[in-house]
Amino acid sequence: MKKNVLITGANRGVGLALVNAYLNAGWHVFACCRQPDLATELQQRQNETEALTLLALDVTDHQAILSLSQQMADIPLDLLINNAGYYGPKGYGFGNTDADEWRKVFEINTIAPLKLAEAFYPQLKSENPGIIACMSSKVGSMTENTSGGGYIYRSSKAALNSVVKSLSNDLLPEGIISVALHPGWVQTEMGGPNALIAPQTSAKGLMHVINNLSKIDSGTFLDYQGKAVAW
Ligand code: NDP
After folding, report:
1. Would residue 217 count as lying in a domain?
2. Which domain holds residue 90?
3. Residue whose CB lies within 8 A of the most ligand 1 atoms, among 6, 7, 8, 12, for a mutation test
4. Looking at the record's lineage, which domain of life comes first (predicted)?
5. Alpha-carbon distance 172 to 114, whole Å?
6. Residue ID of nearest Cα to ligand 1 atom 30
């Protein structure tokens, strides 16, 4: 039987590359994005394979998350990838941080991953317990923060890391593994054209890391090459 993965923010960037990587590896992919009608690459893949289910989901809509989980009640999930992310406005710094934008970034980067984990807990807690992989960022690491600034994004990912730790403590007794992942500096809309690696390289590495996770790795922060990132 095919393994099942649900990926958020699946229409572009790292999310889209993860969709392709998991499809190529023979998984069934539940690809969530805000506007499936505009997701041309995903639509094209869906025309080619029955292993891709395209779903509409804005991760800040908690009711929609619950409805989707109810819709998928009978489908055991091997993997939930909380990939959707938002950097927020660029060019702000000490003295002009926009609190409304901060709340928006937190909704997407920090609160949504927990809401998805809570909603899909029944599907993850199956006979073969699943994995919750949250796309964090080195930028959220306290140790790596030597340059300051980036208050909104940094704090949202640092808080996400804290969410992952608690998920791990709460759910590992049931066999569910939770990890925070750093995808590398990736050439996407968020990463920009000067980034170091292609989305495909990141996705291939992340998939390898996730495939090789065991219980001892739960509650850790790993990059796309499997190296531990300092909190
Ligand atoms: P992109 O900006 O290229 O893509 C972001 C994705 O998140 C899009 O699919 C976007 O959908 C989706 N998204 C944003 N808001 C929502 C929402 N409310 N509901 C549903 N989906 C939403 O980012 P990347 O692919 O580069 O990043 C993927 C993840 O990796 C993010 O969590 C990011 O923080 C993290 N990361 C990326 C790095 C990089 O170098 N690129 C480095 C470190 C971490 P839409 O098209 O509808 O806007």
Report:
1. yes
2. 4-223
3. 12
4. Bacteria
5. 15
6. 135
